[in-house]
Amino acid sequence: MKFIRFSSALLLLTLSGCSESFLDLQPNTQVSTNTFYQSASDFRTAVNAAYAALQADGLYGSVYIHFSEVPADNAGVQNPNGAGGIAQNEFDQFVVTPVNPSLLSFYSASYAAIQRCNIVLGRIEASAVTPALKNQFTGETRFIRGLMYFNLVRFFGGVPLVLNEINAAEEGYTYTRASADDVYKQVLADLTDAETKLPVSYTGADIGRATSGAAKALLGKVYLTQKNYAQAVVKLKEVIDLTGTGGRVYDLAPRYIDNFDPARSNNSGHKESLFEIQYKTGGIGEGSGYTNGSAPPNGPLTLTGVGNGNGQFIWPTVQVFNAFPRSDPRRSANLDSLIINGQLQRYVKKYLQPVYGSIPFNQADSDMNFPVLRFADVLLMYAEALNETNSGPNAVAYDAINRVRRRAHGVTTSAFDIPAGLNKAAFALAVENERRLELAFEGHRWPDLVRTDRAIPVMTALGFRVQPHQLIFPIPQAEIDINPGKMTQNPGY
């Protein structure tokens, strides 16, 4: 019997089917392609498999932070010689080599997710699924594929554009690297199609799936990355103005910490979340490792919820501690420190859940979702884009950034607003700093510094000698070796 086989350009990955319930992405038994991909239930299960791919350690489960936070000034490596520390330390010290295992992990996991999307996209048109569900499932998988290619092009530059289902390893070897421009064109095409096909919101068990608002917000981020500020303004304003049956679809949560409460995930009690990576505890392989990965080793259970964390995913630097004013409540929401065995241990607090009582929570099994897109991110991108298009900030740009600051401090007055009268350069730095504080350890800092051409000056000021070619990372050596003559390495590596 022929089983569903998901292949990437890098290697064959055999994956089993997933549950029809979106919030329960637990793998089921393998299913035959001879009878699958026919009913709406079949395709819902296949789309859920694409979402489940995002949970992988190689993506948002762990390694995404190596690319998006560790090279920047917010995060470092707690134990360079510990489990995973050697690979992570290469990102921190700008000595990444093509054989770094995190490269291969991220690259292959990204293409595994892309393959799952391509299977749905290639088979759904010929199915008997209703037009409405065809649109939804197509929009969801194009959103996920667009997100994957956006991450790949930001971190590697041009990569192979695989847009069709791969059925044999030999097919994967035919692909060469597309240019970064062509990858961005595909990202825009995927997300533009997704925003027209996805619903504004969902109900019941479907809450948490990709929406038109999420696609618009990601489009805004792509345009911002390309320095197409006028288009970024358009898309981000569409998100801000988006309305549904209950009025405005998105708004800031009443409190900053509401965004990191598992009981309030997927906009339960607020409207700030646009897209989250779904995790579920229970020993079923769907839990997040961020709790264990950000807790300090030998930390007290009562404070961290973790009996013996490893602090390996994200470890805060002294610089990020100092970046937060002590009056900013986000400092204590994001960061803390302890004296353990006579040594000061800094740690990231926002992903910890001290709710497990006396049960040591050592395994990677947290049910805290990982935030990919938040409304605060949208407001700050909007302020940045307005500043660029108007050669300086206008009142709308000020309002956008100050909304974020007022929520952070729990006030409705101007007491914590940024100073009036800033020029374009000063306002840009104010937005950059606000993003650093508001979105700390959510996977934004390094991409932000790169797209604003600030990575080299910021890291040089800290004593790092960053070369221009190090703004992106090397293609995994395994990909070069398995496809000689067709895959080329990035310059400098």
Structure explained in plain terms:
The protein is built from 19 helices and 10 strands. With 493 residues, the chain is mainly alpha-helical. Among the domains are: 1-198 and 453-493, Serine Threonine Protein Phosphatase 5, Tetratricopeptide repeat; 290-352, no CATH class. Strands 1-2 form a two-stranded antiparallel ribbon. Strand 1 (6-7) and strand 2 form a beta hairpin. Helix 1 (40-53) packs parallel to helix 5, helix 5 packs antiparallel against helix 7 (180-197) and helix 14 runs antiparallel to helix 15. The longest helix has 26 residues, at 131-156.
Topology diagram in text:
Layout: E1 6-7, E2 12-13, H1 40-53, H2 63-68, E3 75-76, H3 85-93, H4 101-123, H5 131-156, H6 169-172, H7 180-197, H8 212-225, H9 229-241, E4 243-244, E5 247-248, E6 273-277, H10 290-294, H11 301-304, E7 315-316, H12 318-323, H13 329-334, E8 335-340, E9 343-348, E10 370-374, H14 375-389, H15 395-409, H16 424-438, H17 445-451, H18 455-460, H19 477-482
Antiparallel strand pairs: 1-2, 3-7, 4-5, 6-10, 8-9
Helix pairs in contact: 1-4, 1-5, 4-5, 5-7, 7-8, 8-9, 8-14, 9-14, 14-15, 14-16
Descriptive key words:
disordered N terminus, mainly alpha, Serine Threonine Protein Phosphatase 5, Tetratricopeptide repeat, 493 residues, two-stranded antiparallel ribbon
